[in-house]
Amino acid sequence: MKSFCLELSGPYACFTRPEMKVERVSYDVMTPSAARACFEAILWKPAIRWHVRRIEVLRPIRWINLRRNEVSSVVSIANVKKAMNGTPVDLSIYADDSSERAQRAGLFLRDVAYRIHADLEFLPERDPQANAAKYHEMFERRARKGQCVNQPYLGCREFAAAFRLVDDVAAEPPPIAETRDLGFMLHDLDFVNPADPQPRFFRAQLANGVVAVPAWDSMEVRA
What we know:
This protein is mainly β. The protein has a single domain (2-212), classed as 2-Layer Sandwich (Alpha-Beta Plaits), CATH 3.30.70.2660. 15% of the residues lie in helices and 37% in strands. The protein is built from 3 helices and 9 strands. The chain has helices at residues 32-42, 77-84, 132-145; strands at residues 2-13, 24-25, 48-57, 63-71, 101-122, 162-165, 180-190, 198-207, 210-212. Strands 1, 2, 3, 4, 5, 6, 7, 8 and 9 form a 9-stranded mixed β-sheet that branches. A hairpin with a 2-residue loop joins strand 8 and strand 9. The longest helix has 14 residues, at 132-145.
């Protein structure tokens, strides 16, 4: 595995706490699953896996209250399956329809910036003709040029993130000088059963602006 570092920043972020059923309330710091999604937005292939190891907070943790209009309905899974089988089905949701909208309050982060460190694992059985160096070079090239499959985002897709590849971490400014217990935080979803993915959590600690992310199979990560 090879380690890479990205710097992410944006005016708003929301890493939603799953225990909040209706209102959107963010964790204090970016979650490992959100960090992984940013790496995958730049490069994802069946033959690679991203493992987030460290999240550095570069700006003071600040909050903002906002109200947003959200779509209250979802596309029917049954209709999606019909469409995949070739049956003509209307999968549209009309956001302008007042019956489809719901206004929700949110407690979001503002003016955020993070440095996230992750290891790229190559799975040779998924691509026997390739090697790890191929994917390392592919990610570096894409990240350096600002290329991505979809724009990385900070928890919610409307909160787009600016990103850059960090080559020399030692030359970068230090994270914020803050230490606190962040409580239990979402690590990622367990997709052993794809039909019913289960969340897994860990006890997050912010130590001098850094959250160390335990390995997925460690005793610190629990259902």
